[in-house]
Design brief:
Blueprint lengths: L22 H24 L3 H29 L1
Amino acid sequence: MYWLDGPREPAAKSRAMAFDLTDAEMATAAAACRALAFQEELRAKSVENPSLRGPVENSAQRYAALAVKFEAERKRRDR
């Protein structure tokens, strides 16, 4: 096995790390992700080359999706 090949077990088998965040920390993380998504959207609009714009737009979408996950977890814990 070559060292750049990565771990032998597939990523699907990897376990998600559990975070023990307070409600305020999750709210802060969600707000930070929203801010990053907004900044990346602005940056994507300023990029003229479509092949360079795609990865920036994808980053913005990932940050927005992460914010949604933090917000959903906050709502789930409030029940």
